[in-house]
Every structure is written in structure tokens, then in C-alpha cells.
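Model it.
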Amino acid sequence: MAEKTSSYNGDGKERVIDDALLGYLQGELGLPEMEAFEAAAARNPEQAETVIAYSELLDSLTNLLPETEMPVGSYERERIISIADAKPISQVIRAADGEWIESGMPGFQFKILFEDPDTKKKTVLARIAAGARMPHHRHEGAEECLLIEGSLWTDGVLLLPGDFIVTQDQTEHEDTWSPNGALALLKTYLEDEILAD
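Modeled.
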């Protein structure tokens, strides 16, 4: 059974904290223990509330400490690099991050979320204005599309939120447009060939 420690927060109420919570907050758990703790906290609203409260407390205390630069020895440096090589850190892009870029077609904007360095295939958000139409075009490479918001017509098929479509390489589309605007997640090369009508 886990050891328990009593603590008091700002409202004067006593809270009981187990060693797993302390280890989690202090960064002392290994990755499997951390993931197990987070999964358990997600199922227990009271524990999740405690984690958030103590995390905020630690953050506020950290902000009061003077900034110091810890010297890193060669052993520690090699260990950090080996951990990073063994499990690359995830890349997170928040909703407010990134830049919307104009596509060159009126009413179509893209935000690049990720580009595969080997295949050069991109994961992008596509924002399509109400009434915007894409000219007759041919796909260079297969394209995957998940509609998130709005509606999108493509070659006589109406896509609604949650609908997914895969367009094969060299497929031609003559009529792709959105009646009321749309937001879509694409995995594509962004190299479609615009064809003359």
C-alpha cells in the first residue's frame, strides 16, 4: 500500500497525498509509471483536481526561484541524448500556433502541421471560404481528406463533418467547392496540377 502524506492547501483543508502523486509532481516516476498515474487520474475527478492544484502550486513556486544554469557533465549530456534518440519527443502544435498561408486559389488557405522528411507528404489544415471553388485539377499523389467543419462537394459527392475520402494519384476533380465554408484535415503533397477547362 502506498505511503500517505498530509498536506494543507490555501483553503486550510487537509489533503492526503500518496507517494505516487508526489513522485509524479516531482518528476521522479519513470515513463510507464507516469502514464499509468495519468490514466488513473483521468478516471478519478478528485485525484485529477488534486494533480492540477499541486501542479499549479509547484509552477507558482518555480516562478519565485531565481534562474540558475546547472552545469551538465559529459555523462549526463550523453544520457540525455540517448533518451532523446531512443524516443523522440512528440511535436505538439496548438490550435493558435502555425500560420495560415494563401494557396493561390481564392478562398483556400492552408496551415502546414507536419511534413514527412522522407516522402515530403504534408499534413495540413485546409480552410475553405463559403462559395470557394477549386479549379479543375489532377492530384499528384494520393490525398486523404477528413472533413472537420462545414460541407464540401467533390465531383457530386457531399462531404459532411466526420466524412473521410481518399483520392488516388492522378485522379482528376472538376468540381470541388464549399457552399458554406469548410475546415478539413488533409494528408497531401500540395502539388495538384491545375488543368485548363
